[in-house]
Amino acid sequence: MEFTKVLKISAIILLSFFITFISAVEKEDKIATTSVSGDTILVVFNIPEGMYQDFDQDLFFIETEETKGITLMETIYPEPYTDEEGYQKFKGTITLKKPFKVAEKYLNVNIPLNICIGYQFCYGDMCDPPVEIEETLIIKLGEKK
């Protein structure tokens, strides 16, 4: 009798995990928007109402592959808020910035840059599974005057 109860609870937990994961995957294109502004990659995250993102650079990031002609800087995070337990978090609309420099001989050239962005939104003490999205941006900077 006790084993059956544990099995049912485990099945419910597993099913809710997969439903949450599918929900996150379906929403990922609306949650994060990427763009390039001048010499900076911008990723705008729209954190759903009632959820938050912990300030954990292993789970909230912009990563890029090494690309000839582009030197990437550290990701710039906005100022997080500190909750009542002392944890740093983000809510609402958050923009991560990743500045870069293009070598002079690559100015006015289209350079494909593969990026990976990651996040893990939480609510209360529960968190959705981590999500990673990969895409290719085209970088093209003209000559600076």
Q: How many discrete domains?
A: 1
By CATH, the topology is: Immunoglobulin-like
* Tertiary shape: elongated
| Corresponding CATH architecture | Sandwich
**What profile does the largest beta sheet have?**
5 strands, antiparallel
Strand order of the largest sheet: 6-7-3-10-11
Helix and strand pattern: HEEEEEEEEEEEE
CATH superfamily: Thiol:disulfide interchange protein DsbD, N-terminal domain
Overall mean confidence score, pLDDT:
83
The top level CATH class name: Mainly Beta
First-residue to last-residue Cα separation: 78 Å
Sequence stretches where pLDDT stays below 50 over 5 or more residues: 10-29
Overall number of strands: 12
| Class based on secondary structure composition and strand pairing | alpha+beta
Strand composition percent: 35-45%
Helix content bin:
10-25%
Q: Work out the radius of gyration.
A: 19 Å
The oligomerization state is single chain
Number of continuous helical runs = 1
